[in-house]
Amino acid sequence: MTPFLQIRGLAKHYGPVVAVKDVNLTVSEGEFMTFLGPSGSGKSTTLYILAGFERPSEGDILLKGQSLLQTPSHKRNIGMVFQRYTLFPHLSVGENIAFPLKVRGWSKAAITERVRQMLALVRLEGFEDRKPTEMSGGQQQRVALARALAYDPPVLLMDEPLSALDKKLREEIQYEIRRIHQQTEVTILYVTHDQEEALRLSDRIAVFSRGVIDQIGTGEALYANPATRFVAGFIGDSDFLPCRLLEERGGEARIALASGQTIAGIPLHGPQQSADSKAKGEALLMLRPERLSLSTSRIDQALDATVEDITFLGNHIHVATRMADGSLVSVRLPFGHPAAEGLPRGQAVWLSFEPGSAHVFQ
Predict the structure, then answer these.
(1) CA atoms of 140 and 201, how far apart (whole Å)
(2) What domains are there in the chain, each with its CATH number?
């Protein structure tokens, strides 16, 4: 069976600068795929190549088995929604949505019906005569989404469409985008640097770093089994402690911390030697703040630290602790957790965790 959308060996060079290199990706029809990464990681460049706004230096893009590279952007029939809404300010909402349909030669009756359907889809019935300047940012973005979907494109590209909105409005529009995706089953490729947004919206996430995809998977898979240190630090919150790899057995590590304390049974990531080797070297222990337990009573095999700061963050409490070697370790406790009650700065505490919930990176 021919894959719906394929990106093969994609690369883009701007003189000596490599923006994208050897990007490979297969997207299923109806999938919500998010490109996640920091600024300059290559995610938007990849999206622009898909849209036809940029030509790749190498590689190919195939939609239903047919290359798109020789097809001009305006003939690819791909929808696009940008951070800036790019609505025509002199046209009404209805006229904005109708514009791509007029360009494609739809009849007046068909355009009227389609505009009505699109306004209902984005829940803006009765707004067809308003100008974009008379609407909020969230409403304008919904109009832009309706316009992009009006001609029923096989693929919808969205480039950081919500980054200009405040947090509450952003979350509301995220819900609307998810609802619209489920209702229309359009294939969406979505670019963001916001990990929470990616986790809320996506079926799968491609994590970009320095022009390449570090890892592709569901949000749960990327969080639980990060393939690289970059993915581990970018998906979810994490702390990294320097350690020394003492031994590797079947993909699990035994390490020594700066204090001399040893811990075994931690999943190991990096170039592994064999099922049972004596590989040694500098490494990093990654801990998730929400997977740590905190106690004011001494616990064997726990990490000893001192409370440096406590911050109330609504549904949870963030406790910043400092180990003897100077390493900072964050602990996230649910609101009302007894361990956080009356916890003073300077308090000696012990931090414990299940080895399987941590990771070691070479």
Answers:
(1) 20
(2) 5-232 (3.40.50.300), 237-361 (2.40.50.140)
Query: Which amino acid appears at position 29 of this protein?
Result: E
Nearest in space to 10 (alpha carbons), one of 53, 58, 49, 43 = 58
Under 8 Å CB-to-CB from 116, ≥6 apart: which residues?
none
Distance CA(136)–CA(227), nearest Å, equals 41
pLDDT of residue 213: 97
Query: HSE of 15 in the Cβ direction (CA atoms, 13 Å)?
Result: 0
Residues 188, 176: Cα–Cα separation, whole Å: 14
Is the pTM of the predicted complex or chain greater than 0.85? yes
Enter the tokens of residue 359.
């990771």
Q: Cα torsion for 64, 68, 72, 78, to the nearest 10°?
A: 40
DSSP string across 260-314: S-EEEEEEEES----SEE---EEEEEEE-GGG-EEESS--TTPEEEEEEEEEE-S
Which residue in the block uniquely carries the two structure tokens 């409490």? 317
Q: Which residue has the tokens 């490979």?
A: 24
Q: What is the pLDDT of residue 275?
A: 44
Contacts of 291 (CB under 8 A, 6+ apart): 353, 354, 357, 358
- For the segment 314-336, what is each residue's pLDDT rounded down to a tens digit? 889 999 999 988 899 999 998 88
Retrieve residue 182's tokens. 């489920």
- Interatomic CA distance for residues 256 and 282, integer angstroms: 10
Q: For residues 355 and 264, what is the distance between their CA atoms, to the nearest angstrom? A: 7
